[in-house]
Amino acid sequence: MLTKTQTVEMLLDIVQSNVCVEKRNGTSEPIDVKVNTRGKRYIYTRAMCYKMLRDLGWSLEQIGRHFGKNHATVRHALIGFEYMMKDDKELACLFPEMQAAFYDKVQEHVKTDSVLTLSKAKVRISELELELKKLRLVEADYLRSQGKTAVVYNKFLDKLVLL
């Protein structure tokens, strides 16, 4: 299962590979949304990250903790998210693509984790069934040693065979 930190790192990789910020010298570089700045491009990109994590069911506090922000800051960004997407058409076009890429990666991990969990559960079920059969044999030996009637003992063995 993905940890919260791994999920954020995966999200940041996707965002940084899609969103760049222009520098004053005319060059551009991948955006670092964890930088403490109030530049419009940074705020809007952080809001996209908040939105994707919130859609996964994260609390405002959890999101804020991973970005070094207060839950109220996250809430404010989410409230203004629609406005931000109308204001920055480039980010509005990138958002659905990044969102789809992020959710696909999350789903890949969920499927892998589910398969592993299911495999472990099946192995544990097999172990428990074997243990149950052993206990029933011990119980059958006990019944026999106590001189229980053949009828009770045979009924017990019939139940054991059915399992």
What does this structure look like?
This protein is mainly alpha-helical and 163 residues long. It folds into 2 domains: 4-118, Chromosomal Replication Initiator Protein Dnaa, Chain: A; 119-162. The chain is built from 7 helices and 2 strands. The chain has helices spanning 4-18, 40-55, 60-67, 71-79, 81-87, 89-145, 150-162; strands at residues 20-22, 28-30. A hairpin with a 5-residue loop joins β1 and β2. α6 (89-145) runs antiparallel to α7 (150-162). The longest helix has 57 residues, at 89-145.
Write the layout of secondary structure elements.
Elements: H1 4-18, E1 20-22, E2 28-30, H2 40-55, H3 60-67, H4 71-79, H5 81-87, H6 89-145, H7 150-162
What would a concise description of this structure say?
With 163 residues, this protein is mainly α. 77% of the residues lie in helices and 4% in strands.
Report the CATH C-level class of the largest domain: Mainly Alpha
Give the helix tally.
7
Largest β-sheet summary: 2 strands, antiparallel
Tell me roughly what share of residues is in helical segments: over 70%
Question: Which residues sit in consecutive blocks of at least 5 with pLDDT less than 50?
Answer: none
Whole-angstrom Rg: 29 Å
The side-by-side strand order for the widest beta sheet comes to 1-2
By secondary-structure content and strand pairing, the structural class works out as mainly alpha
Supply the CATH superfamily name of the largest domain: DnaA protein, C-terminal DNA-binding domain
N-C termini distance: 34 Å
How many discrete domains? 2
Strand content: under 5%
| Number of DSSP E strands | 2
In the CATH hierarchy, the third-tier topology of the largest domain is known as Chromosomal Replication Initiator Protein Dnaa, Chain: A
